[in-house]
Amino acid sequence: MSSATVNLVYPLSAVDRSTRAFGFVVPSIEKRDILACTFSHRKYPGRTSPDVALLRAYVGGAHRPEAMQWSDPEMVERSHTELASLLGIKVQPLASTVKRYARAMPLYRVGHLEWLRTLADQSSRWTGLALIGNAYKGVGIPDCIKLANEAVASFE
């Protein structure tokens, strides 16, 4: 599945009260232009100067594949409009960047867990082999690290 991140920089004073957590996910029933938002200035301290907020909106995915056809300026505008509505932001972003990820996110299909069991049964004949990656049990880097640590521990 394809998706994009839209990184928006705001003065911290414009969003401080509404970004005390690490972010949020938008339920698909809301039919919004963004899927989620990470408050990167909170989640990753030190990546921004203390007077700015970095909000990373996620666009596209299985629920809004047509969003990948939007131009970068349109993605920025739509993301800003959604965040302004949801978080009460009253200023324009100071800066923005868009990063597109074509076919970079796995979409697990019905039957995925059964497929994983079959794969584990088949691959168990090779000692010391572990299959790790976002195609198996989690799309994020922390998921892959967890799987790698579990695999190493199983070989000890």
Domain module tally: 2
Mean pLDDT: 91
The CATH architecture of the largest domain can be given as Alpha-Beta Complex
Taking the alpha carbons of the first and last residues, their distance comes to: 36 Å
Which structural class do you get from the secondary structure elements?
A: alpha+beta
Helix fraction, binned, reads 25-40%
Find the CATH superfamily of the largest domain. Protoporphyrinogen oxidase, mitochondrial, domain 2
Radius of gyration over all CA atoms, rounded: 19 Å
CATH class of the largest domain: Alpha Beta
Q: How much strand content do the residues show?
A: 15-25%
Number of strands: 5
Order of helices and strands: EHEEHEHEHH
Global shape? elongated
And the CATH topology of the largest domain?
Polyamine Oxidase, Chain A, domain 2
Number of helices: 5
Describe the protein.
The protein has 156 residues and is an alpha+beta fold. It is built from 5 helices and 5 strands, in the order E-H-E-E-H-E-H-E-H-H. It has helices at 12-15, 40-43, 72-87, 112-123, 141-155; strands at 3-11, 23-25, 36-39, 52-60, 95-101. Strands 2-3-4-1-5 form a 5-stranded antiparallel sheet. The mean pLDDT is 91.
